[in-house]
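request received
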Amino acid sequence: MAEERDIEKQLRGYAEQRRREAGAPFELHLATRRLLQDEVRRTHKKPAEAAERASLFASWWFRIAAGACVVVLAAAVFLPALSRSKSRSLRLAQNLGLREKAITGSAQNRPSSPPPESAPAPVVSPPPSRADSDKDRLVTTRGIILNQAVAKSSTVNVTNAITPNMAVGASTLAFASHSAQQIFFFRNTSVPAGIGPTTGSRAGGELAQSDLKQSLNDQIKVAAGKSPLAMFQMEQTSNQIRITDSDGSVYNGDLTVANTETPAAPAAGAASVPPAITAGVPEKQPEQSVRRNEMLSLNNATVQQNQNFRFNATGTNLSLNQRVTISGEFIASTNPATLWGTMPNGGGGAGGANSQATANGSQQLSNGRIIGRVVLDNGREIPLNATSVAP
Amino acid sequence: MIHARRRLNMAVMIPGGESELIARCRRGEAAAWDELFDRNYEATARFVFQLGHDLAREDVEEICQEVFLSVIKNLGSFQGESRFQTWLFRIAVNRACDYREHRAAAKRGGGATPVSLDAGDDDRPPIDPPAPTPGPDASLLAAERLALVRQAVDRLEAPCREIIELRYFGDLSYEEIGGTLKLNTKTVSSRLSKCLDRLEIIARTLFAEESDNPIPSNT
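response:
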């Protein structure tokens, strides 16, 4: 090791002397330490926070991903259910829209000068000629003839009930023989739905179209959810029927022709003659048969040959979530005069063969009353005694 | 290759705990910074105290505060090529130089705090500011010698002054000086030798001037 130079010794001596002069050890003053720590926070805060955020995200990303998966699964489970309930509402709304369309069509076909309200008897339309036989006609309780050919989808107002004092006998409606779709609205009078008969008010006067619609809407609202087929809509296309309940339930079935003997209306006061029911009623409904027999005796009616239609339909009631089987009979016209007027082939006597009756007689069904029964899946049986009502 | 050598040097020069402590300081941990201050403040203050014969303890504390503020702001630029204390001493050299230049400029412009002529007129005790230098009896001779050595050092160029201060006031080895100045050890040795030669010449001149101009006696 080289010998230390003189200047080096002087430097070391100077350093040693200064260290001695320094005295007590230097200590970082508290205020200086605080100042330095503040500067540390200012300078190194952002990188530390960013690193903390990154580490926080790294620790939480799995939970976030798991939560997102749960949300997606929940959406996948619940969205189909929501769309199903929406489709139910949509179906009912479409049915109501069809009904309103039918109302509009019938209103357009209505003559500009309706007969006076005081007319006691229904206006009998003139017998149709052969040339007009292919036209479907529709006769209301007021005796207004509606040309079915003009309105493809028409609505028939039939206000009939099993109640004897209801004046409904003169009503006539017809099923179209061709494949054009017809829509009818019915109310089951066997179901105590709190719906008053609309016959009186409607038979007595001409209601405005909006009143009619509002009335039916109210009835549907009241009847909805109380019993199956309390208020329903029947669509007929050829021999296929489709019954839409007020809660949106749909029952599909078919229509067959049955020759029945029905009491004819008396010569006088045809308007007050109740519908005649003799045959075609299911045997499992004795109380209704008794009612019909009573009505027969009350009306002292004559028996005439007429065309009735039996139908069977099945489907699932959405409110009860049960399978429903409907069987019944569509009771045809009881007014021979009206029947004459609406029969394209010259009346009921013209039909001999059953097939002929199906072809021609299916074009006309009067009074739009349905008698039958509704059997639920759990064995419960509901009598069906429905009358056609205005839409 | 160069990077690998630097890493090797860093591993040799930086103690294991120091690198971890610096990493914690870079993450902003207050406790780490406290530990860093406690480890280095005393050595830094003593080193700064040697950088000027006219520096009082208050001056040293002020310079040290500036030094550590610089460390906080520039810790990211510390590459680990030397010991942290070496890097710290180099900052201290620069800050002490700045401080002394600033004070010399203040003296040239007056420097003293202006005192009102009416200061003693009220009931308050008269202003008696403390003297910035040690007492006259004890420090007269020492101050004269220290002043000559220090003046000689101050007359050196900056590179020579820095390397001499780091070597003799900071007690740093050649390797540590080479690490902080990014010089080879042999280069440090040769440069230090040359700087001592220059310092010797300057000091001799100063002592000769002092001996040629003795203090005049009253007799």
